[in-house]
Amino acid sequence: MIRVGLTGGIGAGKSTVARTLTERGAYLIDADVIAREVVAPGTEGLAQLVAAFGEDILQSDGALDRAALAAKAFVDDEQRKKLNGITHPLVGARAFELLEAAPADAIVLQDIPLLVENGSAPFFHLVVIVHADEDVRLERLTGQRGMPEDDARARIKSQASVEDRRAVADVWLDNSGTPDDLAALAAALWDERLVPYEGNLRNRICAPQSSEEVEPRPEWTVQATRLTNRLRVIGGDKIADVVHIGPTAASAGPAPDVLDFEVRLADGKTPADVAELLADGGFPQRSVGVHANADPGRAVSITLK
């Protein structure tokens, strides 16, 4: 099983990617759907919201009046934190239940609008960002959804920046074209990367790595930072440090396009203590003390110290 985090700014086209991947077999966990589910009539979540914000957040039929709740919950940080303190644990618990129910060979697609903002990117095998320029998104929100322009601009500005999204993006899908263009990109991602990645991970196979040298690439540093964060999450307290080493760290001249890492184990830990953790996280063992990436889209070599 691999977990793929999907996100993008409002109006970027995330739903097109989710639909395309789901049609091809992805196991979808949609945070927005869960967020509505956990506060449906009769749920403990709705009861907690009423206790916190009052009976007037309900419609006449007993369902949540989202506009009335927003008017109370978004007036200041204290009220926003109160809302998040109720809903976030419920959404997280339900998402975990769905994840536990996924087949062992699943490609799990977790559609999370605030994935970047909540800092959860390192917990996924891959993060897919759907991007469209702000003027394109603004036109979609006002023209297709009928959203007032001021509201649309405010929603866009309140979300993560392009730079923040690029920092966590293993895959960047540009949606400046048509929905069909975007669907084609998503289908190619499924066929060429996600399916091979899941099979490699499940069978503990390292993806092939080319020895062909390339000129230094500016993205090496950003990719290395992203993978360093992921390795630290995977290893937890069994890892003392992760260091990007080798030619791609120096970027001094042509080198194979392979990111080399030295993972320094915590005191008393051995390679055997982290081998399965790394394999589950997407880095199967190549030999004792050496791991590599199961992801065919990013060559990685890891030496345990």
UniProtKB/TrEMBL annotation:
GO molecular function: dephospho-CoA kinase activity
Pathway(s) this gene product operates in, as recorded in its UniProt entry: Cofactor biosynthesis; coenzyme A biosynthesis; CoA from (R)-pantothenate: step 5/5
SUPFAM superfamilies: Nucleotidyltransferase, P-loop containing nucleoside triphosphate hydrolases
Catalysis: reaction(s): 3'-dephospho-CoA + ATP = ADP + CoA + H(+)
CDD domains: DPCK (cd02022)
Bilayer-crossing regions: none
The enzyme's E.C. designation: 2.7.1.24
Localization of this protein: Cytoplasm
Top EC class for this record: transferase
Sites where the protein binds ATP: 11-16
Keywords associated with the record: ATP-binding, Coenzyme A biosynthesis, Cytoplasm, Kinase, Nucleotide-binding, Transferase
UniProt similarity note: In the C-terminal section; belongs to the UPF0157 (GrpB) family.
Protein function: Catalyzes the phosphorylation of the 3'-hydroxyl group of dephosphocoenzyme A to form coenzyme A.
Designated name of the protein: Dephospho-CoA kinase
Protein species of origin: Gordonia rubripertincta
Lineage of origin: Bacteria, Bacillati, Actinomycetota, Actinomycetes, Mycobacteriales
Underlying gene: coaE
